[in-house]
Specification:
It is a single chain. By secondary structure, the protein is an alpha/beta fold. It is 30% helix and 19% strand. It has one domain: NAD(P)-binding Rossmann-like Domain (Rossmann fold, 3-Layer(aba) Sandwich), CATH 3.40.50.720. It is built from nine helices and eight strands. β2, α3 and β3 form a beta-alpha-beta unit. The longest helix is centred in the last third of the chain and has 18 residues, at 224-241.
C-alpha cells in the first residue's frame, strides 16, 4: 500500500559548506560494510570541489571470527579495523581517510563555522550512542535559527531487523522544529526519537563481548548488517544531494517489510510521543 505521507513530506535542508567531514563511528558488522559507501560518496564530492575528510573511529582489531560477517579479509587479520579501512580507501581511491584506533570522543571532532559534519554511528552500546549524541551540543552554540552544522545518523539492528534514525538537535520543544517554505532544516536527535537506545542491554552490564561474539549471542542474520548499511548509505546520498524526505526507516528481514517516517510536521512532532 502506498504511503501518502511521502507526497506531503518536505525535503531536508542541509547546510551548504565547502568542507565536509564524515565520521564513521564503529567499524564492525554494519560500519565495515557502510565504509565503502561513505568513501565512494567522499570521492564523488571531492571531484565536485568539496574538501572532504573521512574519519573512522573504532578500538577493535580484525579477528578471524569477523571475516564471515564483516567487510574484512584474511590478510587484514591483526590490523586495527579503523586502520584497515582507512588504508584501503586512501590507497584505492585517494580519499583523505584518517583512522582513530580508539572509542569515539566528541573532543576528537574539529568543529568549524563553515564546515558540515556528519556523524554515522554504527555502535552497539548505549555508552557509544551517548558519546555521539553529545556531539550535537555543538549545534546549540549558535542561534536557534541557524541551519545545523552537525548531524547524527544512527544505525542499529537486532537479530533480523534494524533501524536508521537521523537527527541534529537535542531540543525537546516540538515547536523548535518548524517548517519553512523550502523544507525542514532541523530534526530531533536519534536518541530523542528512540530514548531506549540509551539504556544498556543486559550483556553490556555483565560482559565485554566483541562484535562477533555479540552477533553469535543474538543469533544475528548474516545479511542484517548489509541491509542496515545499504539503507544508511541511501540516507547519506540523498542528504548530500538535497532530496531526502525521511528521517527514520525500520525494516524486518523475517517478514520482508520496511517502513519510513517522513519529514512532515505531524511526524516530527510525533517523534516525541512515539
Amino acid at each position: 500500500m502506498f504511503n501518502y505521507d511521502y507526497l506531503e513530506a518536505s525535503p531536508l535542508i542541509v547546510r551548504q559548506a565547502d568542507s565536509i567531514d564524515f565520521w564513521l563511528i564503529g567499524a564492525g558488522g554494519t560500519g565495515s560494510w557502510l565504509s565503502y559507501h561513505i568513501a565512494r560518496l567522499a570521492r564523488s564530492l571531492s571531484k565536485l570541489g568539496k574538501k572532504v575528510q573521512f574519519a573512522i573511529a573504532d578500538p577493535d582489531i580484525v579477528e578471524e571470527a569477523n571475516i564471515s560477517r564483516q567487510a574484512f579479509c584474511d590478510k587484514e587479520i591483526g590490523l586495527p579495523k579503523a586502520l584497515a579501512l582507512a588504508l584501503r580507501y586512501s590507497i584505492a581511491w585517494g580519499v583523505d581517510a584518517t583512522a582513530f584506533v580508539q572509542k569515539f570522543d566528541p573532543k576528537l571532532i574539529r568543529y568549524s563555522y563553515d564546515k558540515l559534519t556528519i556523524l554515522v554511528g554504527c555502535v552497539d552500546t548505549a555508552a557509544g550512542r551517548a558519546a555521539i549524541n553529545q556531539a550535537l551540543e555543538f549545534n546549540q552554540f549558535y542561534s536557534r535559527s541557524e541551519i545545523p552544522r552537525v548531524w547524527y545518523l544512527d544505525c542499529g539492528n537486532h537479530a533480523a531487523a534494524g533501524q536508521i534514525l537521523l537527527g541534529s538537535s537535542l531540543e525537546t520543544e516540538p515547536e523548535f522544529y518548524h517548517f519553512g517554505g523550502l523544507g525542514c532544516a532541523r530534526l530531533p536527535s536519534p536518541m530523542l526519537q528512540a530514548p531506549d537506545l540509551l539504556k544498556p542491554k543486559p550483556e553490556e552490564l555483565t560482559n565485554n563481548f566483541s562484535c562477533a561474539e555479540m552477533a553469535v549471542l543474538n543469533l544475528q542474520s548474516e545479511s542484517v548488517n548489509v541491509r542496515v548499511a545499504a539503507e544508511a548509505a541511501d540516507f547519506l546520498y540523498r542528504m548530500t544531494a538535497g532530496n531526502l524526505k525521511r528521517f527514520a526507516t525500520y525494516f524486518d528481514l523475517e517478514s520482508g517489510t520496511a517502513r519510513s517516517i517522513y519529514i512532515t510536521q505531524h511526524w516530527v512532532y510525533s517523534a516525541f510521543t512515539r
